[in-house]
Each structure stands twice: as structure tokens, then as C-alpha cells.
Amino acid sequence: MSQTHPLIAIKARLINGKTVQTVNARDLYHFLEVRLSFSTWMKHHINRYEWVDNTDYLVFTHSGPHAGRPFKDYVLTLKKAKEMAMLTCTEKGHELREYLMNVDKEPFESLNDPAELRRLLLTYTDKVRALENRLNEILS
User: How many other CB atoms sit within 10 Å of the CB of residue 80?
Assistant: First the structure.
């Protein structure tokens, strides 16, 4: 499930066994217009604030184009993306911080509506049944 918002894309991902809202760190970096190199910026935050891999962020290593030098991409939890926005003392950082503080409230507002809650539960029930059927087909 991916949501594109006016400022930055937010995607639900599985981190440490939990589905959480995440932000692509490169997208965040470009939006904030950070002057450091991407890798320096990421390493600084991970080391200084003692972030934990597979809890606060995920890291993916990719090969460069045409078998070039490998590079890393990161996915941050929404909480860490907010933290990075707060630590970036720019207008863009302030704008994004305000935006992200409201984003994580959106999914829960619909849970106050019984009809919407029922629809969500039925949707996930259907997905679980489809996965169970697929698993049974594979195991048969």
C-alpha cells in the first residue's frame, strides 16, 4: 500500500515483523535539499542517533548502472523521517515536519467510523483468505 502525498511518498512496509509507514531516504534527502552527500548524511544520522537497522530503517544495496560501483538506498520509518526533518533547520525541513506529523494520524481517523472499520476488516479478511488459498495450492 503506497500513498503519494504532495510533499513525499509514504509506503507501508514490513520492518521487524510490523507493518509501518516508511519514507524513501533519497526522496527525503532531495526534498530537504541537504548539502552533504547522501551517504555522509545517512551515516551521520545512523551513527550519531544510534539508529538500529531493521528497526529504524532498512538498507538495500544496488549495483550501479553498467556494473558500476554498488550504492545503498535506505527506507526510514515515518518516526525517523520526522526526526530528520526536525534536525534539518531549513524552511523545507519545517514544512515537511508539519506535514509528517499529520500523516500518521490519517489512517486512524477512519477507525472511528464503524462502517469504514468493517470495510477495512473485510478487505483484509479477503486478502488473508486469498493468501491461504494460494498457499494451499502451492503446498498441494
Answer: 22
